[in-house]
Amino acid sequence: MPHVLRLLDGWDHGPAHVLNRRTDVLAQNALCVALFEGLEHTDNVLRMFFLNPAAKGFWTAWEQEAQRLVAHLRAVVGADHKNPSLLELVEELSEDSEDFQQMWARHDVRYRRGDAIHFRHPLVGDLILWQEAFSVDSAPGQRLVTMQAEPGSPSEEALAKLGAMMGLVCTGHRRR
């Protein structure tokens, strides 16, 4: 994982983090920290979505994205159904979130693929970021998730502005 951490530290194209099967955030770059600054439960993506009162305003297509996450979790649980930490997460979310409980009851199963995610950030406004996940071969069950804006888009400008506010240099798709 040290190589992945170096990659994260040098990744200046957009937010990036490393997640495990439960969507626990194991590592993240500075722009990812800035993107989710002010939200609760940033240690786990599913908990951030379902246990965070501000989530529905932060993700502008919250329900669609939440359904994707739940369907992905169901696929992961199906492949590793004896994993107690996965089952504990499902139990926690089912008890604490009616939205999660209803989505889980649909039994949708689908692994995530690259999707556009729509955010409304309190400092820089609306962002559309394309997310892609890569398996970390040196750490089975972990994924490096990257988010990037379209080159030349308002979202790329907003990411650069967010990075500048945090003292970061964001290069987007161009090297400066």
Automatic annotation (TrEMBL):
Listed Pfam families: MLTR_LBD
UniProt cross-references to InterPro entries, sorted A to Z: MLTR_LBD
Domain MmyB-like transcription regulator ligand binding: 2-162
Chain coiled-coil ranges: none
Protein name: MmyB-like transcription regulator ligand binding domain-containing protein
Organism of provenance: Planotetraspora kaengkrachanensis
